[in-house]
Amino acid sequence: MVAPLKVGIAGLGTVGAEVVRLIESQGRALSARCGRGVRVVAVSARSKAKKRGVDLRGIEWAKNPLALANDPKIDCFVELMGGSGEPALSAIEAALRNGKSVVTANKALIARHGSRLAALAEKHGGALNYEAAVGAAIPVIKTLREGLAGTGINRVYGILNGTCNYILTRMEREGLSFAECLKDAQRLGYAEANPSFDVDGHDTAQKLAILASLAFGTKVNQSAVYVEGISSIAPEDLRAAEELGYRVKLLGVAVRTESGIEQRVHPTMVPKSSSIAQVMDVTNAVTIDGEGIPPITLVGPGAGGAATASAVLADIADVARGIRAAPFGRPIEKLKTTTKAPMKRHEGGYYIRLMARDLAGTAATIATRLAEQKISIESIVQRHPDGAVEPVNTRGKPSPVPVILITYATTEDAVRQALHAVQQDRVITGRPQVIRIEKN
After folding, report:
1. I need a surface site. Which of 193, 274, 305, 309 has the fewest CB within 10 A?
2. Does 374 participate in catalysis according to the annotation?
3. 3-state SS class at 82
């Protein structure tokens, strides 16, 4: 009879308490699937007195996470405290140095210290599993690391933040502003009181850095990701996207190019016919383009206590089975260093919305500046707001008219230079709105 896997859990918030409950309720099924039992023998949390809705009788309390990581009684250290630094980092390092396996849901820590922790796991023989760090219940880590180990990956991209997807969904469906939808998301608990980490794209960037490492064999480097958020998106952009056959999503995209691995997070127009365009509200999705196979799209809950705990338990089950995959799919010495790819080299189609002055020669000037940068236009839409024949501002002068352009594939540098020249010509007002287009 194989001895049960003895688990220590640091952090008993929503996810940690749910993991304890699942191990208790799924005990027999886990034993059958893994060939051995799984038991929580010790925990660590800030407050021992706090009610957590799970039975912790018979489970030892460690005085702190580091003491738990050094406890010789546990085989598997589960870190659910969060944060890119202490105490999570020291506790995980101690567990790995002791030859223990580690399971974590901590995307910030993996994005910042993943390569360093992988080296420790490799040196001391433990597993480092982090399925819950990206996409919660969506098994994208195992898919890239194990399921597609024999497939060359060309591109991986996805909706990796439920808060942003919820806001963009509400804006599209109800014609609301970003500020209105953000306020409602905060009221419903989908957005934090300080939402910048989500809406400015940094949460997505951390997750994308991890996926890029797995897909392309690079060291995790969040600083190599270009990041834009969604606060500049306006209802008129979503209406235009609808008319043109697109939908706007905040995507994290990592793609192999001739000049290296391009990693970027920004609002993106995707064809409405694509799988990822159908993913609405707080749901997450990841699409993987591999050599010789059609694109694979994984869709599911990307956050939440139950979904995250499910992924944590799957990682614990792998430890119980004795599975030891290289944390990033390759030995640490084989991972390549990557740097931030200049966005000016990015190639693709663009949506451009300009507020053009209603003056003779404006259209010709815009066309000339685009032609100078060899930018070809796929479509152009010009309309007066609200269908008015001749909109007039309060001073009795014609108001600027929205002009929407869709370009064929061009470079970011060309678009920036053309728009800078148009602004210098003073034929538009305000700042041009630019959204990149991601084809299937």
Report:
1. 193
2. no
3. coil
